[in-house]
Amino acid sequence: MALKVRRDEVKTAEYPLVGGGTWRVEYDETAPCKVCGEPVGSASMGGVDICPSCDCGRWRDGRKWTPNDCPPVVKESLEKLKRMMNGAQG
Ligand SMILES: [Zn+2]
Fold it and tell me: What is the mean pLDDT of the chain?
C-alpha cells in the first residue's frame, strides 16, 4: 500500500534541430520557471526553464500580460528597453 514516488524518473524534452535531428534535454518539472517562479510543469518551445504559459506571454490563469500586469522579470526588461529607446535621444 506504500505510495511509490519515482524520483529517478527524469522528464525529457525534444527540440527539432536546424538541419535535421532532435536535441533531447532532461529537465526538472518542479524547477521554478525563470520568468514567473512557478514550477515549470512541462517544457515549452522557449526552453526547459520557461513554463508554457510564460512562453505564450500569459499568466497561469490564461490572462494575457500587459505592460502594467506582467511578471517582474518581464516588466524590468520592458523598462530597460524603454530607457534604451529614450536614451538614444541623448
Ligand atoms: Zn512561467
Answer: 89
Give pLDDT tens digits for 59-72: 999 999 999 999 99
pTM: 0.74
Residues ≥6 apart with Cβ < 8 Å to 48: 13, 25, 27, 40
CA distance 14 to 66: 30
What are the residues whose beta carbon lies below 5 Å from ligand 1 (ion)? Answer: 33, 35-36, 51, 54
Contact between residue 44 and residue 60 where contact means Cβ atoms under 8 Å apart:
no
Cα of 58 from ligand 1 centre, angstroms: 8
